[in-house]
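Figure 6 in text form: structure in, sequence out.
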């Protein structure tokens, strides 16, 4: 079994070997499910009562500020042990209530100097949770964005409201890049019963990728999010066409950077007492290879630093979450962040 320290040393050794041959610039792209980053206001028309002072979670201003402290600290530490400072260059997030909570997060003292900017649209999700993109303008500038919806219906023909997907295009250190952020439908109600909804979400993501690649066949596209499926599930393999071997990509396939980690038994959350890797980053073929004249994928990691983990008890090693039921844990999230390092020659 590869320990975390050995794994980091392998990554460092690999990057240093390349760097010895040619000087490289690096970029860090990440995704983090922030586990219910809600404000304390009861918003009309949104099922957010549990995150209000009088709700079952007793969601007070103090708890909200502690949650912001924890999220800001975790984000600021992503990639630090690889020499990255100030948080990811681009960060996709999910389970945020609105733009306001992200503005509070970006203004936190631990992140303020990074000057994070935000791309956010309100989704029709009944609980009011959305996806968004945070980015540091030092590395990335936005040229366009959109929030395509995912129309779903129940077996009875009733509409099922879920999160929109977010598409953001822009320039990353001089190179055009595109980011698709999603929070695919959950497994609540049963994995098999809800599977068609995630397959539909994967189909939408695939159409978005194809539309971008139709404009530029060598486009650099990242699909990231809490996909509520593992890399081996059919939504990823069949509908998104995300494969696990970058050296054997077939026509039209993308590379799931998390697939090799999943094969090693590394996960980003624990679901019903099992380890899963629902948080993933998938890249288009132009980000694969060793021609570092432009940015290429180098390696992927689940950021499972010990401070993000439950320290003892039955759930030792699980993500240290904010709540267990309605009991305040004062933790971070029920998901670990995930990230990829991309590199190119100076």
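Output sequence:
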């Amino acid at each position: 079994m590869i320990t975390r320290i050995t794994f980091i040393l392998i990554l460092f050794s690999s990057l240093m070997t390349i760097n010895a041959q040619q000087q490289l610039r690096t970029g860090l792209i990440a995704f983090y499910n922030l586990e219910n980053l809600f404000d304390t206001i009861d918003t009309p028309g949104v099922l957010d009562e549990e995150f209000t002072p009088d709700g079952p979670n007793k969601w007070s201003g103090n708890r909200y500020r502690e949650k912001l402290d924890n999220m800001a600290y975790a984000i600021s530490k992503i990639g630090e042990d690889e020499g990255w400072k100030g948080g990811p260059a681009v960060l996709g997030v999910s389970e945020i209530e609105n733009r306001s909570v992200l503005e509070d997060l970006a203004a936190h003292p631990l992140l303020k100097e990074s000057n994070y900017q935000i791309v956010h649209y309100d989704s029709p999700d009944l609980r009011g949770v959305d996806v968004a993109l945070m980015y540091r303008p030092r590395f990335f500038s936005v040229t366009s964005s959109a929030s395509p919806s995912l129309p779903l219906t129940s077996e009875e023909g009733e509409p099922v409201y879920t999160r929109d997907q977010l598409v953001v295009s822009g320039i990353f250190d001089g190179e055009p890049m595109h980011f698709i952020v999603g929070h695919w439908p959950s497994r609540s109600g049963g994995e098999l019963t809800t599977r068609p909804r995630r397959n539909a979400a994967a189909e939408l993501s695939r159409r978005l990728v194809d539309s971008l690649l139709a404009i530029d066949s060598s486009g650099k596209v990242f699909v990231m999010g809490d996909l509520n499926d593992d890399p081996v599930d059919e939504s990823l393999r069949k509908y998104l066409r995300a494969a696990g071997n970058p050296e054997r990509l077939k026509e039209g396939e993308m590379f799931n950077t998390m697939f090799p980690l999943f094969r090693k038994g590394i996960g980003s959350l624990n679901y019903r007492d099992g380890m899963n890797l629902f948080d993933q980053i998938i890249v288009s073929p132009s980000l694969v290879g060793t021609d570092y004249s432009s940015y290429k994928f180098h390696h992927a990691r689940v950021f499972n630093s010990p401070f993000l983990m439950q320290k003892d008890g039955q759930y030792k090693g699980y993500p240290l979450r904010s709540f267990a039921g309605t009991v305040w844990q004062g933790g971070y999230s029920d998901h670990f962040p995930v990230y990829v390092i991309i590199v190119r020659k100076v």
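Caption detail: The two ends are 36 Å apart (CA to CA).
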